[in-house]
Each structure stands twice: as C-alpha cells, then as structure tokens.
C-alpha cells in the first residue's frame, strides 16, 4: 500500500505539471484550441481525482473497501498512472527533439507530434483514452466515498450500480493488457497473404475527408517529421480481367512472361493533385479506381427530398442549428415481418400523437458529421430491414437496419441524396456514405448530441432538438444492439443513468413480465431541459437493458394522476409507454399498474412525484406571472393608463 501511495503522489504532481504546460498551446494554436482545452482539462480533472483518491486512502475504514476491490483498484489506478506518465514522456521527448516552442509553426509541430505519437502508442485517440481513465477514476472515488460516508458532490448513483461499472471497467482494462480485442469487436481478420508478384495495397477511389479537429480526432499534418520520408500514394491497382456477358472470362492465350512489366516498389509516383472543377473528367467503366459494373436498378422508387422549411430549418445546412426542432425525423422505408401491418414505433413518436415534451436543448455547437470511411457499396443483405432513420443538419441521415434472419444490426450514415430507401449502392446526390456493425460502436450522450464511437476513433455525431427524441434514439440503439449476435456489454457511458440526467428514485418492481423477472424502476430528470421520465430496466451483474420509458413532465400536474391501490401497488393514468422490446411498440396505457417488490418503496415514490409536481407548478406560475405582468413605460415617457 505504501508503494501505491508514493506512486500516487508522484503521478499527481506529473498530472498537475502536464495541465500547466498544455494550456498555453490553446492560445498559441487558435485553430486547435478546442481539442487542447479538452485534453488539458481532462488531465487537470485526472489530477483532482487522484488527489481525492489519495485522501480516501488515509481513512481508517479504507482497508475494508480495498479488501473487496483490491484487484479492481490496482488495475484502474495503475492504468491511469501509465497514461499520465506516457503522455509526460511523449511531451518531453518532443520538446527535447524540437526545442522550446516559440512560434506558431513550432507549437503546431509539437502538438501534432504529441497527438500522433500517443495514438501510435495507445492505438486510440488521446482524448478518448484520457476520458476513459477519468471516468474510471471518478466512479472509483464515488464508490469509495459512499462506502466511507464521504460522498463527493453530485454523487447520485447507487453504490451497487457503481460497483458493477467498476468491475466491468477493470475487466476491460485486463483484457486490453492481455492483448485481447475489446468486447463486442470480435477477433481481428488475419492479414491477406499475397502470392506471386508483389502488388501495391488497394487504394480507395473515393477517399473520405479527414476527421474534423473539433471532435478529438488527430489532425493530418501537412509537414514531414525528421526521420520520416514524405508520403506518396502507391499506384492504383490494375483493372480486373475482362468478363463476357455471361460472367465467364475469355479463354487464356499464351503470354510471354518476359513481356509482363514488373512492379518496382522503389518507384515513387507524384502526390495526387487536388481535383478542381477545371480538371474533372467523366469516369469510364473499367478504368483504374472506377466502378467496374453498372449500378443495379433501384429496388424502391426514389422519394422526393423533404421540404426543409416545414421543420423550422431556416439556417443553411452547414451552420449550427439556431432554432428549436432542427432534427428531422423521417418515417421508415420498409416494415419488418415482426411488425407487419402497422407503423414502426419510432415513426409514431414524431407524428401528431407524439408525447407532449417541450424540453428543448436550444443552440448546440455539435455539428452532425460522419467520420466513417466512404464505401462504394454498403453490402446490405436482402434480409436487412430498415427499422428507422433520423435526419439532422448538414444534410446527414442516420439509418438503423436489422436482419430478420440473424438479428444483426448495421448503422448506415449518409450525407446528401434524397433520403429515400435504396439498395446500398452509391446513388446520385450522395456525397458520402458509410456503414458499420452496431456491435462495434458505443453510444455516448454529450449535451444535446449523440456520439457513436469505435474503440479507436469517433464514427459519427448527430444532434437532437429535444430531450424526447434523443432519449428514444439512445435506448433504441442499445435495445437493437443488445439483441444482435456477439453484442458487447454496455460501457459506463451507456448506463440508463448518465451524467446528463439527475437520478431521483430507484426501486425494484415485479409483475407477469418475462417469467416474473424483477425490473428496476427509475425516475430521472434531465439537467438541461428539466424534463421528467420514468423507465424500467433489467439489471444484471454486467448488463443493463432498458425495457420501456415514459415521459411524465406534463402528467404529474394533473389531478389524480397517481393513485395508491394497496400496500405495494400504484396506478398511473394516461401514460404513453415506449417499449424497447422486439416489437418496439408504443401505446397509450389508460391505467399503468406498477407493483413494487418492497412495500416501503411506495411512499417515497409518491412523495418524489409530489415534490416534482410542486416544483413544476411553481415554475408554471412564475412563467404565467411574467407573461401577464404589464411592461413598464420607457424612461421619460408617461403612460396614458396611469397619467391624464
């Protein structure tokens, strides 16, 4: 224990010095100020968490907690030590090689070296890596503080939920230390072994633009570092062999092997020049880097582009949303056999019968973007059914597909186009399209936006205008992914209770659902919009799946909305219940019966409802008073109402 405390004091000082030396880069490199601020602030918060953990270690009762979570504490704290010390080593290595930065160019080079070298070492983005360490430390400090009766500020989560998160996070770190792939990603594909002549690696004929520097992705440096030669793209692959109308190659003719030109790996080609409107030429079939077949005809007719004015989007698509309701919610393209004969639940959410939820996130700086690599053909199978799609600013559309036969889930992100259903091939007007298996993504809420990330990079960002649509998409994504084959275990950011929501109440309920399996009933309040919701979830040792949710902000103000029937039963009237089971059904329940496992949980639940109702009524009276109050006359001007 003494060795851990000595190392803890040493790493805490290193983290403090790192935060101090990284903050000046924010002013020296203005175009990178966002990512520099995020990195420095994360390191600063890590230093604060380590200091809190050090204070808790000196508590006399800490030995009982350490005995229960000895291995998990060692794993999480040691991993954060390793990250901070490695970042400190990389920083001093770059400073010793390039010297103390004095100009804008030197600051840019050192910052680019730090981001690149750290990503090469960790295999992940520096910000994602540090935020994971910070999240692990905060959960650990919160759990130990609750056990020692020293809860930190804003610690609203129950200890058992924190314990599950800590063990799950320690398990992930142990797998990475042993060289195993992250859960949910599956085994990596073995490298392709080429035989015969040496061929250059394949080149994507439609390269995607580099990831935006705003969202934490390492920038592409326009310079070459010492010891590294400038990058030159390899020559394109030769066109495939000609095939006749029936798909069979023509008979082979004897060819003199000495006439075949050999590929010289030392021969470098000039860099690719940027494409401008003056040098664009039509792409012919069969040329290197061009399609080798005519695109297949559409399986479905192209739907016209929706009128953007009807969604209140008066700003250009490339600017951040400035008005509420900037997210488009488009109906589904095809209907699954499991829900044949009716509309999908997600489409019903945003029609005239949508819940009366007015909580808006207002202006947001999250610009919808897809960072996935461009794909000419998305490879959708005939059994892949589009469950729902969500449109956003920047002409971006996100679609969720589920395979009826295998239950596999794929996420498709497109930019441009008419927004209709298609076969998966590139369509006219589509500027960028990418697809990925949902089990390879983790979902995280950041303010009014959803971030979909792989273990190595940020894949897509999509913003939402209100709390209801964001919550439904968040849990619908988790519900679809949970039922997919090889589904990963949820990470800490995918919990039913996250940092963006205030945890108000939790209790166990029972019933006739799922063979009498218990559910956790929760009451949550959004910190941004103030909206209330209740949900039920199945919680196991390493898993947490939301079964249904209901938004109750407006209902709690109605007289007689909640009623106690017995010692363990209550009834809620007129509740619109959004279910995340296999059918994804939404329905209006006139009387929702809830049976608590313990009768002592009924009264606290009703008192919490009464407390939130009083807060809601006070807010409504305040707004009504402001609306009816007469406006004062301007200075120096008399009103005829009070003066003759």
UniProtKB/TrEMBL annotation:
<protein>
    <submittedName>
        <fullName>Uncharacterized protein</fullName>
    </submittedName>
</protein>
<dbReference type="Pfam" id="PF23074">
    <property type="entry name" value="PH_FT_N"/>
</dbReference>
<dbReference type="Pfam" id="PF23076">
    <property type="entry name" value="PH_FT_C"/>
</dbReference>
<feature type="compositionally biased region" description="Polar residues">
    <location>
        <begin position="266"/>
        <end position="281"/>
    </location>
</feature>
<feature type="region of interest" description="Disordered">
    <location>
        <begin position="174"/>
        <end position="329"/>
    </location>
</feature>
<feature type="compositionally biased region" description="Pro residues">
    <location>
        <begin position="199"/>
        <end position="210"/>
    </location>
</feature>
<dbReference type="InterPro" id="IPR057081">
    <property type="entry name" value="PH_N"/>
</dbReference>
<feature type="compositionally biased region" description="Pro residues">
    <location>
        <begin position="232"/>
        <end position="253"/>
    </location>
</feature>
<feature type="region of interest" description="Disordered">
    <location>
        <begin position="620"/>
        <end position="644"/>
    </location>
</feature>
<dbReference type="InterPro" id="IPR057082">
    <property type="entry name" value="PH_C"/>
</dbReference>
<feature type="domain" description="PH">
    <location>
        <begin position="504"/>
        <end position="613"/>
    </location>
</feature>
<feature type="domain" description="PH">
    <location>
        <begin position="380"/>
        <end position="487"/>
    </location>
</feature>
